[in-house]
Amino acid sequence: MSVIVASDKGWVVDHQQGIDVSYQVCQKLDSTEQTTYISKQGLFAIHQPFRMDSQFDKLVSKSAKSEDASGSDRKRRKRKRTEPNSGEQQAYLNHQRIRPMLQKATEQLIALGRQKGCFTEPPDDIKSADNNLSARTASKTVGPGSCLREGCRRGVMKAGQHTDNLSANNSLLDKIDLKACCVLPDIFNTLIDHSSETASVVSCLGGEYLLPPHCHFLMSDYTCLDALLQCERKFDVIVIDPPWENKSVKRLKSYDMLTDWDLYKLPIKLLAAPGCLVVVWVTNRQKQQGLVRDGLFPHWSVCYLAEWHWVKVTKHGEMICDLDSSHKKPYETLLLGQFKATSDDLPLSPTVPDRQVLVSVPCSIHSRKPPLNAILKSYLPIGAQCLELFARNLLPGWTSWGNEVLKYQHVDFYQKVEDNIR
């Protein structure tokens, strides 16, 4: 169980455990040999707050009182201060609004987590630290690289689709039941049903991937989103982690971004069952949060319910950076709403609480979110149909869609446990 602590303030979640529990028993579909996989060593080895190497070296030097005297006499160049723009001012005001709640809730959750043995005390000597070296090394794992995105683009060309065509009239969707197939063929625009009771290791695109039990996934480009509609499923919860436009992502080309207009075109009304819980990850930019609350939610017929926050901490329970840092905040935000097909739709039971905090040690890979399945289960009907949009990993019992939906299922992000299960 990935939820270590549940209280009226929120939850402490073990992200790594939430992943590893699905792969205790894995086997290739054409073999009887069973193996246990766990997350690659180092991916969650966050022992100290995040610092640039230069910042860390300076901290170690200062604690040892060995600063270079000549360097200390040198005048520092003062940075020119500029007035914050309107977006920065709005972000500051929002931070001040939620700061007391975040600090109090995080402190209480960390204390409860310590009682469960989830966090340990930090070392006294900074010189014994290594600035999360193993985590930074593991974060460079390549996995499938860009081949999934490129394959989806080829799938678009093959289907003869165009960017603005999101109709459901094209018969793009094939379906494969993995019980009859151990090597995946052309998996793009194809609904894959993995109904096995245990995890499986499958081969495709020249690599091997782990599939959790009872999962379903569809890998396609956004321009072929109509393939998802042909699944003919209505979902009780939809989690959305949009590929927001971002200067850093644009420079690094780490994923394909979508415009605000693209997000408006998501067919949430066609995917959601009456009363569906809709959960959207947003950054701390007030423009994005306002877009979801005041634009996307009304357009999708979703009523706003709650605001939750994911607070990232080290294995010792410290926030990964200063709470008031102007450069980077140690938290991200989720906005929750309920789809109402008609005014008669009943509210969710139990009621989704507002101002909740989710605390976890983050993966060292940028932007990889913690699993929400165990938390959201309390607010869903028995046997709920669950969907994640723009997913980059799979969850047991869920349907996942995205153009990199298998990215973090690649075996490069895991390691075998030596003692095979017999």
The gist of it:
The chain is of the alpha/beta class and 422 residues long. The chain has helices at residues 15-20, 53-63, 69-73, 86-115, 133-138, 147-159, 226-229, 247-252, 260-264, 268-271, 286-299, 373-376, and strands at residues 3-7, 10-13, 26-28, 37-39, 174-177, 190-194, 199-204, 207-211, 215-219, 235-240, 272-282, 302-312, 331-339, 356-360, 386-389, 398-402, 414-416.
Ordered list of secondary-structure elements with their pairings:
Elements: E1 3-7, E2 10-13, H1 15-20, E3 26-28, E4 37-39, H2 53-63, H3 69-73, H4 86-115, H5 133-138, H6 147-159, E5 174-177, E6 190-194, E7 199-204, E8 207-211, E9 215-219, H7 226-229, E10 235-240, H8 247-252, H9 260-264, H10 268-271, E11 272-282, H11 286-299, E12 302-312, E13 331-339, E14 356-360, H12 373-376, E15 386-389, E16 398-402, E17 414-416
Parallel strand pairs: 2-14, 3-7, 5-6, 9-16, 10-11, 10-15, 12-14, 15-16
Antiparallel strand pairs: 1-2, 4-17, 6-9, 7-8, 11-13, 12-13
